[in-house]
Amino acid sequence: MNRIGKLALVAGILAIALAVPMAAANVIFVYQAQVTVKPVTPVVWLPGPDANYVSLSLTNKTSPQISLTIPITNSSETYVYQALEVKVNAGSPNLYVDSCSYSGPALTSVKLIVYPTTGSPSSPTGTITINPSSGCTASDTVSLTAGNTYYIDFLVQPSLPIPNGASSGTLTIYFGLTNESAATVPTS
Q1: What is the mean predicted confidence (pLDDT) over 35-54?
Q2: Structural domain contains residue 31
Q3: Which SS3 state, helix, strand or coil, does residue 10 take?
Q4: Angstrom distance (rounded) from CA 91 to CA 188
Q5: In this structure, is residue 32 part of a structural domain?
Q6: Which of 169, 152, 151, 157 is nearest to 78 (CA)?
């Protein structure tokens, strides 16, 4: 091989040696995105379909206070269907009555019957019992599940007899939640 051939061979090998790292180099693209995330409230409180029958008012929806006027007669009980609705967006919170107040004729108890909107009050998720005659104390908690919406019915049992046969009472309830978790946004 002559001198020019050797130079051409070395130049070719050198060109190949320089081209290989360039061909194997990674190509990096920079992508910038802006994502708008709507915050999700773990639990949403709404008036139920029959809220108007008991003049239900709902305030301070993050730590809800409800007030309802219950018709009380000399019957052994008054049942208020679907007065309140609770939509659980995230977590597995436990619902309880933090405190309450009552004014009106004496009551034996008020039971809050909690059940899914797709279910029936005859097979409730749980029941919370309020005793208005002893400082408006409440017992029990009800476990709720994310993705479900629940109705809360009220079973009012008066202390009989009611003077003049009928009256109304106003019950104000402050609800609380434990084991409440924030909603998370999945990443991909």
Answers
A1: 78
A2: no
A3: helix
A4: 21
A5: no
A6: 157
